Amino acid sequence: MRSLPRVLTLLAALTALTTLTALRVPAEAAEAADGQVTDAHAVPVKSPFAKKAGKPARTSCPETEIAHGGVPRARQYLGVVIKCLDKSWGAYFARAGWTFRKPVVRYYDEPAGTVCGGPWPGEAAVFYCPGHSTIVFPLTGRWIENRTDLYPFKVAAHEYAHHLQKLRGLRPGAERSGEPKRRYELQADCLAGVFLGSVWHSLDRGDQDWEALLDATRASGDEEDGRHSHGAPASRASWLKRGYLAVSPSACDTWSAPAAAVD
Hints:
Blueprint: H1 4-32, E1 67-68, E2 71-72, H2 74-96, E3 104-108, E4 114-115, E5 118-119, E6 127-129, E7 134-138, H3 151-167, H4 178-199, H5 207-219, H6 233-246
Parallel strand pairs: 3-7
Antiparallel strand pairs: 1-2, 4-5, 6-7
Helix pairs in contact: 2-3, 3-4, 4-6, 5-6
């Protein structure tokens, strides 16, 4: 007959293994489903951008022209923005002592049949594939063609923010909509605002450009079955502005915000 100490040891090991499996399942499910976010009621979410990590340094990121002489230059424009994002967030992660990896970036002249191992999401203009750590930019569409405002700049920063969320352990999960999805998306809006705030001094833009961007962001609020899946127009603009003014990722804690702030 086994001694009591040995039985207790075996029970402790079994409990630890069960706990590890329970924690691992959501992460594995996350890799299999792009564009989703873990159910905050099933797995408590804590914002991974601690105040002690500080703020991104002020960096320079002058815009290039999206079009010149009638010739689209969207890829060049986005390439410059991505390089700035790599530099800014890479330095921030390094100072915080966190592991940083640049995302893969893919450009398409027009939407393709498949992307990131699955069908192109018909409802999306620009998107991030968590399982492939890839930002996908179509170079056509209303989000970027014939624009003179900062909306394409902000969209690039938003999708990059999803990569930052993944690097910090926020992985997509089983929920495609609802409040957890909105908290995930609104945090990305806020992080985009943080980046904009850190480079604003280098942009040849003024107050009117900022207000135009807020208007464009409000116009991008979407609905899914009568509910906003990325956040209501006012919520999206509010979180973008919050990040812009704070220039601190710790200000982007949508996970502890009241439900009314993430509608």
